[in-house]
Amino acid sequence: MAFAIAAVAALAFAAWVVSLGPLPLAQARQVSTTVVDRNGKLLRAYAMADGRWRLPVDAKTGVDPVYLKLLLAYEDRRFRSHAGVDPLALGRAAFQLLTRGHIVSGGSTITMQLARLMEPRRERSVYAKLRQMVRAIEIERQLTKDQILDLYLALAPFGGNLEGVRAASIAYFGKEPKRLSLAEAALLVALPQSPETRRIDRYPDAGRAARDHVLDRMVEDGRLQAEDAALAKQTPVPRLRKPMPILAPHSADQAIATEKDAPVIELTLDSGLQKVLETLAHDRALALGPNISVAIIAVDNESGDVLARVGSPDYFDDRRAGQVDMTRAVRSPGSTLKPFIYGLAFEDGFVHPESLIDDRPIRFGSYAPENFDMTFQGTVSVRRALQQSLNVPAVALLDRVGASRLSSRLRQAGANLVLPKDEVPGLAMGLGGVGITLQDLVQIYSGLARLGTTRPLREIVRASDNLRDPMRLMDKVAAWQVGNVLLGSPPPENGVRNRIAFKTGTSYGYRDAWSVGFDGRITIGVWVGRPDGAPAPGIVGRTAAAPILFDAFARTGKLPMPLPKPPRGVLLASNAKLPLPLRRFRPVGELVRTGGEQAPHIQFPLNGSRIDVDRSGGAQSAAMPVKVAGGVLPITMLVNGVSMGEIDGRRQRLVDPPGPGFARLTVIDATGATDTIVVRIQ
Predict the structure, then answer these.
(1) pTM
(2) CA end-to-end span of the chain, whole Å?
(3) Beta bridge partner(s), residue 358
(4) What is the mean pLDDT of the chain?
């Protein structure tokens, strides 16, 4: 009879166990989506759908060993050896309850507590405890001890909407639980016992008392020195919750929109660089004035990885449209496309950095470009024209290169150019008459640092991203020449010359200020302006964006890396030693003359004449007179391709002749008309 009763009871128990159904492991493993940087550091976390913060945690690598030691000693000292239920702990708890009249220590193991967290129930009864024991045994059969500990550390309640030790450590201490003080570790052990009555943002005294009780227990058990516990008790308990990290909010938003089901999304960003550049953008935006926004993006040249992206100076600033990512906004680039015009001109071989080019009034059909300061500098070197961002030389070169070819090449390199509706690429695109994003601009600038090839930018780490093929921008020699010219651009007041190759730009109407620069390691781009597109008078690339660019490079914490060495085929020569076709660039556009003036003509000396120079009396006595007729002032005098200055109002000039041999004398008037003679100096 007794056997039959036992058999029936066993069958009933088995049926009850079966009726419990499978363990809700999938639901228990749901966590907040977290976005981490290239080193696994938390950039931003998103609360779960019900508002809870539950962050994934790895006990082996993500939690301080001191905390784990206290947790297991206080909650479940035989965790590694029992099978889910610890009979010794249950017996001890029952004995203490009988002898002292109240609960001194619980008999639940960590696995049993995990079972309760997986299937939360309010009642505290024998039935509930029995259910936890059965579930604990099932958990032990399906999971390893490390997996059980990880799940417990992610689900343990810490008050309010905080679940898991990682969320609690960040909210209460503002840091990951990898490095905790003894006082912090003891507090985190104590809170889950009664998370709502001990939560320190509401009941700090109760939380402190619970922490001190954990410390006392550890001293009684011989696991802590009394002196260490006493010192930990002197540490005040935090009374306020800290906000969850929100680094790189725009990148994180884009990542979760792309990787919708991933619990952890790894980005290529460097959290350290991201933080300092966010601070830089915030501080500079405040200094520049209300409604002004700043965007910064930094890219690794070799890999194309985005190292930092600051879409706005303050994500929560509505006046600056903080939640709009201005690194992805299409804006007018001003003069920042000019280096690529020069690069294609170098590639085509009809101009060299030391070639001479005219910066004079010129008209291309109905289009007559002017410089930013409304002046012209006459004949200058191509190097100087790019460094000073002169408009006429850039448009003249673009007219020769072809606007459609420039557009096609930039698109081929990964830049998406946006033209006005129903328009085709024209000469105005060289001065900003096209739309482009800051991230695309930085991508093609990194191609200059890479000597002519670009890589698609990568921000979300995926295994397939390693298959990205380089895209052609221009040939190596041309890319190096552009970089070499930009390296010599006059830096802003806070910069050092010849450290960073950079270019600035200002769009029409002072709507956008840009500065993009690169060294041998990274490329950084800066945009300054109003997100709504309204003019911001006084905001120009050189004074607003360039200082931020140089500060950004300084805050990388590394000295600028030198640019690559000249590749084979680079011609390093002064203008006088260049091949004749490269010494001077001639535009193909229509020249504008102000009336019926004749072209300039060198009256003296005569072409082919022999000039005897007496150098015994010094430079003054050796000077060679040159007289010019016709032409439109100002008229520039060149000897062997080197500018000697302008002819005076009487169209005369004394010129210091070169050494013995043939000399080539050239005059160029304001319209670009020229006359050249060759004389022999002896």
Answers:
(1) 0.79
(2) 137
(3) 379
(4) 87
Q: How many CB atoms lie within 10 A of CB 186?
A: 30
String of DSSP letters for 14-35: HHHHHHT-S--HHHHT---EEE
Place of tokens 């690529």: 340
Distance CA 306, CA 37 (A): 11
Residues serving a catalytic function are 75, 335
> Judging by DSSP bridges, how do beta strands 264-266 and 33-36 pair with one another?
parallel
User: Residue 83: what pLDDT?
Assistant: 83
DSSP, res 161: T
Do 389 and 333 form a contact (C-beta atoms < 8 A)? Answer: no
- Among candidate residues 374, 347, 278, the one with its CA nearest the CA of residue 317: 278
Copy the structure tokens of residue 573.
Answer: 């020569």
Cis peptide before 634 (omega within 30 of 0): yes
Neighbours of 408 (CB within 10 A): 13
- Count of CB atoms situated within 10 Å of the CB of 165: 31
pLDDT score, position 7: 60
Residue partners of 237: CB distance under 8 A and separation at least 6: 187, 200, 204, 207, 208, 211
- Looking up tokens 């979300």 gives 460
Residue 445's Cβ-count burial label (10 Å; 0-12, 13-18, 19+) is buried
Q: How far apart are CA 632 and CA 600, in angstroms?
A: 8
Question: 121 vs 471, which has greater pLDDT?
Answer: 471
Identify residue 25 by its one-letter amino acid code.
Answer: L
39-76 burial string, b = 16+ CB within 10 Å, else e?
Answer: eebbbbbeeeeeebbbbbbebeebbbeebbebbbbbbb
pLDDT one-digit tens code per residue, 5-56: 666 555 655 555 555 667 778 888 889 999 999 999 999 999 998 999 999 9
Q: Does the pLDDT of residue 441 top 50, yes or no?
A: yes
Alpha helices in 246-390 (DSSP H): 249-258, 271-288, 338-348, 382-387
Torsion of CA 635, 640, 644, 646, to 10 degrees: 0
Is residue 265 within a helix (H) or strand (E), and if so which, with residue range? strand 264-266
**CA distances in angstroms from 21 to 8, 14, 109, 115, listed in the order given:** 21, 12, 22, 13
The pLDDT assigned to 388 comes to 95
> pLDDT tens-digit profile of 286-341?
999 999 999 999 999 999 999 999 999 999 999 999 999 999 999 999 999 999 99
For 513, the token pair is 């200020």
Element (H, E) at 100: helix 87-100
Phi and psi at 33, nearest 5°, equal: -70, 130
